[in-house]
Specification:
The protein is α+β, with helices and mostly antiparallel strands and about 425 residues long. It has helices at about 5-25, 30-50, 60-70, 140-155, 180-185, 245-265, 300-320, 345-355, 375-380, 410-425, and strands at about 75-80, 85-90, 95-105, 125, 130-135, 165-170, 195-210, 210-215, 215-220, 220-230, 235, 270-280, 285, 290-300, 330-335, 340, 360-365, 385-390. It folds into two domains: about 30-220 and about 340-425, Aminopeptidase (3-Layer(aba) Sandwich); about 220-335, Alpha-Beta Plaits, CATH 3.30.70. The strands form five sheets. An eight-stranded mixed sheet has the order 1-2-6-3-7-18-8-17, sandwiched between helices. It has a four-stranded antiparallel sheet with strand order 12-14-10-15, covered by helices on one side.
Length: about 425
């Protein structure tokens, strides 16, 4: 017969059993009460961040503000690393479990705000070209950061009951596509806090506050681009036969590039080539020596991405040779990869959204040709990015617009959804 436990051991066993039973019957946390507790701080965060936006690679004040706000929360610990202007924190629960990562982007856009709110942007900055411009959170990154802070506060309140760990990443330079690449190169997805899954949201004005949307599988596009210098031999506009006119040659190239998409790309593999800038010449009667053309190129899969680059190179060199012009200079840049929402993870997130918002408020969106450098995260680790509604019922809005004015009621929805998604993942 086994020996009977000593009285102190018996008491300890009873206490442990009682604590386990309490946890088992405690049920899910009251997220609504926690949201109500932390909503005022979340609104304050959003308004400060909105009023003080900074361009990509210049997020010094934003970083300092975020660091100060996180330092006031009991629980998260900075993760050492060469994060540049980014910040990485880990919030560890008291019980073992997975590691999940939440990413929020930090940068604003060179747009002068045209919204009459008390906390409108007060920032201006000088671009590399020397142009002075207003700066604005016209893509909602102020929403992204403040929602992440709110969710972090909620999870910090619950950390004694958390399984595993949550890594919160505040990432600079999303708009240039450089931020995610730099932080991943610095090891944010490796080491002792390597995540099992990665998550993010993007606010969207086509959805009303109180709505959300998911997309399973391919979600965003590869974002590439080029700078094409079309070379010729300049001269007097009265004697074009004595020149090799790069203006007319550039015009033919622009039209031909449209035909590349229309006639040489499989319609089942979406592609877009958009010429956004053409510059050449200084006077109406002078044919210049060169014209510079700049464009964005969007595709959704690796095959189309490689094929369209080769077709662009062939087209511009062929047209130059046909015109007797010097070979053009094509500077082609591969940018952020297409985002991919892991279908299994997307299904799990959708179930959480439907439970909180109701099935009628959770929509499905089709993959688009916009870009987002969260794709670099989701290409490395299974994860997904969902859309959070910030639209208003009385007017239409668009991202990257001077009149972008998201509904602040989305903050309350956002912090509850993010906290619920992360709690759900930690229990898996």
């Amino acid at each position: 017969m086994a020996p009977r436990p000593a009285p102190c051991r018996l008491l300890l066993s009873l206490l442990l059993l009682s604590a386990a039973a309490t946890r088992a019957h405690a049920g899910p946390p009251d997220l609504s009460a926690l949201v109500e507790r932390h909503l005022p701080a979340t609104v304050a965060d959003r308004r400060w961040l909105h009023q003080h936006p900074e361009l990509s690679g210049r997020e010094d004040s934003t970083r300092a503000y975020l660091a100060g706000r996180v330092a006031a929360i009991d629980g998260p610990v900075p993760v050492p690393g060469d994060w540049g202007l980014g910040l990485v924190y880990v919030l560890a629960g008291d019980r073992p479990g997975p590691t999940v990562l939440w990413r929020a982007d930090m940068d604003g856009l060179p747009i002068a705000e045209d919204v009459a709110v008390p906390f409108r942007s007060i920032r201006a900055d000088t671009l590399e070209s020397g142009l002075v411009t207003g700066v604005m959170h016209a893509c909602g990154h102020d929403i992204h950061m403040s929602v992440a802070l709110g969710a972090l506060r909620i999870l910090a309140d619950l950390r004694r009951e958390l399984r595993g760990r949550v890594v919160f990443v505040f990432q600079p330079a999303e708009e240039t596509g450089a931020g995610a690449e730099a932080m991943i190169a610095a090891g944010v997805l490796a080491g002792p806090f390597a995540p099992d899954r990665v998550f993010a949201l993007h606010d969207h004005p086509t959805l009303l506050a109180g709505q959300a949307a998911v997309c399973s599988g391919p979600a965003t596009a590869n974002v590439d681009g080029f700078r094409l210098t079309v070379r010729g031999t300049g001269g007097h506009g009265a004697y074009p036969h004595r020149t090799v006119d790069p203006v007319s040659l550039a015009a033919r190239m622009v039209l031909a590039l449209n035909d590349v998409v229309a006639r040489e790309v499989d319609p089942d593999h979406p592609a877009v080539v958009s010429i956004g800038s053409i510059h050449g010449g200084a006077k109406s009667n002078v044919i210049p020596d060169e014209v510079v053309v700049e464009a964005t190129v969007r595709t959704r899969d690796a095959e189309a991405r490689a094929a369209i680059q080769a077709k662009i190179e062939r087209t511009v060199h062929g047209l130059a040779a046909a015109a007797g012009a010097p070979a053009p200079l094509l500077e082609y840049q591969l940018g952020t990869p297409a985002g991919y929402n892991d279908p299994a993870v997307a299904s799990e997130v959708e179930a959480v959204l439907r439970r909180i918002l109701g099935p009628e408020n959770v929509l499905t969106y089709l993959p688009g040709m916009g870009g987002e450098d969260f794709g670099r995260f989701s290409c490395e680790v299974p994860g997904m990015q969902f859309r959070l509604g910030v639209g208003r019922p009385d007017r239409a809005m668009s991202l990257h617009s001077a009149s972008f004015d998201p509904d602040e009621r989305s903050l309350e929805v956002g912090i509850e959804l993010v906290a619920a998604i992360l709690l759900d993942q930690l229990e898996r």
